[in-house]
Structures are given as C-alpha cells and as structure tokens.
C-alpha cells in the first residue's frame, strides 16, 4: 500500500497532462465539429464536398499517424512549414481528428429533425440561422448526447497516444516507473485513474440525458 501511495504523486502529474489535453481538445473540437456539420449540409456543393473529403480523411487514417504527421511532417509541407512544440502539436492533431467525428454526429442529429419544423419556422418568418439556433440545435443536442458521450469517453483513452511525442502523460509516467521498478503495479494504478475519469464522465452524461428526458416528457 505504501508503494501505491508513493506512486500517486507522479501519476497525478501525468494525469494533469492527460486532463489538460482532454479539456482543450473538447473545447476546440465541439464548436469546430458543429461548424463542419453545418458546412457539410450546406447547399454549396464545393464547400460540402470539401468538408466531406476532410471528414473522410480524418476518420479514415489513424490518429497516431495524424499525430506524427503534425509533429514531424508539417514543418516540411510547402507554404505551411510550421514546426509546433510537442503539446500544441498534440492539441492540433486531436482537435482536427475529433472535430471530424463530432461533425458526423452533429450532422446526423440535425438531419433527424423533422422537415416540418423548418417549414413551420419559415411560416413564422424566421431566417435559416434563427431556425437553426432556436429550434433545430436545441433538439439536436438532446438527441446526440449518447454518441457524444461515447466519443468523449474514447477521447480520454486516446490521450494515451501522445506517448509517441514523449509527453509525460499518465501512461508514459506509468511506463517509466514500470521500467524503473520492474513491477506492473503502476499500470494498475494508471488503469484506476482512467477508470475514475471515465466514471465521472459517464455520470455527467447520464445526468444530462435524464434531464433532457424529463423535459421531453
């Protein structure tokens, strides 16, 4: 038990890096995903097609490959040629990747709203933007909570991929202690941290789902 307690300090430091990446990614990818979803359903065909290609690319290639590309290959891309530090590179890769997944979730949520509600809003003199803001999006949020919950929990676990950039996240700290002390206990402790984070997120989303179910009833 004393050994486990001694691990909590360094593990907490790694968990903070994990949580920081998680929070920043979520804060960036959700609004970006919503913007992409609105562009995806746009009647402007070139815009819709371009966003569709972007979503296909981000969902069709591994997140680890995207991490490595942003960190190692981006500096050599013509015109762009930007070299990012390790943590900002991880944020960019995660935000761009998860925005694509959230975009598809949001698009499905928007498409699930009955067309009659658009027509009713038009009769009331609402613009397209007003219809989306006042009628469509509030209903969409209630319907997409389960898939958003799944993606958010997946994000917690995917943060472990940043070990390839030598960032001292929770998993890298655990691996370092395992190599130093020749025991698998740090991996068990790290698993406990991940389980605790996913448990808290599950509770939050279940509470949100119950609240929306109450309002819909």
Automatic annotation (TrEMBL):
<dbReference type="InterPro" id="IPR043429">
    <property type="entry name" value="ArtM/GltK/GlnP/TcyL/YhdX-like"/>
</dbReference>
<protein>
    <submittedName>
        <fullName>Amino acid ABC transporter permease</fullName>
    </submittedName>
</protein>
<feature type="transmembrane region" description="Helical">
    <location>
        <begin position="86"/>
        <end position="106"/>
    </location>
</feature>
<dbReference type="InterPro" id="IPR000515">
    <property type="entry name" value="MetI-like"/>
</dbReference>
<dbReference type="Pfam" id="PF00528">
    <property type="entry name" value="BPD_transp_1"/>
</dbReference>
<keyword id="KW-1003">Cell membrane</keyword>
<keyword id="KW-0812">Transmembrane</keyword>
<keyword id="KW-1133">Transmembrane helix</keyword>
<dbReference type="InterPro" id="IPR010065">
    <property type="entry name" value="AA_ABC_transptr_permease_3TM"/>
</dbReference>
<feature type="domain" description="ABC transmembrane type-1">
    <location>
        <begin position="15"/>
        <end position="205"/>
    </location>
</feature>
<keyword id="KW-0813">Transport</keyword>
<comment type="similarity">
    <text>Belongs to the binding-protein-dependent transport system permease family. HisMQ subfamily.</text>
</comment>
<keyword id="KW-0472">Membrane</keyword>
<feature type="transmembrane region" description="Helical">
    <location>
        <begin position="51"/>
        <end position="74"/>
    </location>
</feature>
<feature type="transmembrane region" description="Helical">
    <location>
        <begin position="182"/>
        <end position="205"/>
    </location>
</feature>
<dbReference type="InterPro" id="IPR035906">
    <property type="entry name" value="MetI-like_sf"/>
</dbReference>
<feature type="transmembrane region" description="Helical">
    <location>
        <begin position="12"/>
        <end position="39"/>
    </location>
</feature>
<keyword id="KW-0029">Amino-acid transport</keyword>
